[in-house]
Amino acid sequence: MGAVKTKRMPRAVRERQMLDAAVRIFGQRGYTAASMDEIAELAGVSKPLVYLYLNSKEDLFTACIRREAAALTAAVRAGVRQDLPVEQQLWEGLRAFFAHTAEHPDGWSVLYLQACRHGEPFVSEAAAMRAEIVAFVTRLVAVAAREAHRDPGLPEREVAGLAEALVGAAESLAAWANTTPEVSAHQAASTLMNFAWSGLGSLMGGKVWSPPPERDHGDRPPAPLSSP
């Protein structure tokens, strides 16, 4: 492979080119299979320049995770208008989430699949992004719960599990939607909103499902008698 000639340009622009190329290669080929040669070639720079700017493959992958995480959280926050009712805020947040993950499938692959498969420090970087989104959803659900129960002092920890479940469902649904061509971002968001808000609406109204009481072994019904 011949040397790649590069034109002088601002460092920020050149680094963005490298990260764009790296996200594409990491997202499609995976961290282990991706090579710095491929990334440099796609970015239109020399491999030594990639190392000069971003030090190592590990540092480059970490930079990709951070950039994609920041972009996703910014998109979700930007999609939510604070003057809307809570259910509308949740809907707009879900729409923004699924639209972003659909428009940036390689970035989502880096965050959701690759980062979690290759240990530290990548897992912690992705977990920090997830924690920020969970905290954001927790606040939305807490506001809805306080309004429904007329209890302004209801602590966020009472609904934290619901937020965790909702974010987990969104992650799985986005991964499925990105590999199912006939499913649009709007459809994915609508599916989760219907699933989540139906349950949340009942919960807010005090309609809480409870498991049946457990019977100990002595309460088991007798086995049917054998025929004579």
Key terms:
228 residues, mainly alpha, 0% strand
Explain what you see.
InterPro entries: DesT_TetR_C, Homeodomain-like_sf, HTH-type_TetR-like_transc_reg, HTH_TetR, Tet_transcr_reg_TetR-rel_C_sf. Keywords: DNA-binding, Transcription, Transcription regulation. Residues 12-72 form the HTH tetR-type domain. It comes from Streptomyces eurythermus. The chain is mainly alpha-helical. It is 68% helix and 0% strand. The chain is built from nine helices and no strands. The radius of gyration is 24 Å and the shape is elongated. The protein starts with 10 loop residues before the first helix and ends in a 24-residue tail after the last helix.
Write the layout of secondary structure elements.
Layout: H1 11-29, H2 36-43, H3 47-54, H4 57-78, H5 86-103, H6 105-117, H7 122-149, H8 160-177, H9 185-204
Helix pairs in contact: 1-2, 1-4, 1-6, 4-5, 4-6, 4-7, 5-7, 5-9, 6-7, 7-8, 8-9
Question: How do you describe this structure in short?
Answer:
The protein has 228 residues and is mainly alpha-helical. The chain has helices at 11-29, 36-43, 47-54, 57-78, 86-103, 105-117, 122-149, 160-177, 185-204. The longest helix has 28 residues, at 122-149.
